[in-house]
User: What shape does this take?
Amino acid sequence: MLVDDQVLLRTGFRMVLDAQEDMTVAAEAGDGVEALEVLRSTAVDVVLMDVRMPRLDGVETTRRVCREGAGGPGEPKVLILTTFDLDEYAFSGLKAGAAGFMLKDVPPDELLAAIRAVHSGDAVVAPSTTRRLLDRFMSLIPAEHQPAHPELGQLTDREREVLLLIAQGLSNGEIAQRLFVSEATVKTHVGRILAKLQLRDRVQAVVLAYETGLVQAGGNERRPGP
Assistant: This one.
């Protein structure tokens, strides 16, 4: 489903997506209110969600779809589409439950890969945009009084290492290369991390790593004091 108030942009995306053998644009909407109405009666797998729209913006729409349910068939995954100037909205979208975010000027092949990744249950956390985004806006969260998350203590050393690499935006394949293990092993670690921390996906893991101070802006692990 395409949700964007720019008709021309939706038309362009539709042309690219409908040309794929494994994709079909099942619905469109010009704002969040219309999107929620459509989702009540239309089953879709992935929603490409704009951020800045009239009546109901993409962040609040994402929150309602991901946390409250859209009231319709299925549980669609949300992929936020934003521009560089609206990175703060993309971060809010991730916290609202989106499976990832990408810039609107992303090359078509990268957009298609992101849609397929989100559909398969993974999350799109591109290293360049994620690191820039978190470095800019996690500084808004005070260094003092970071929220406690006792479940972090349940992680093994290797799981903690994997979590740190996830927070740096590395994919499962890149983590496997870094740790000299198979990608299947990394997937197992990621699954255990999400289960222990009661997180929905790796996007939430990235946010948690920064919010708890496990990783500081810049991608460095915060070392415990004496």
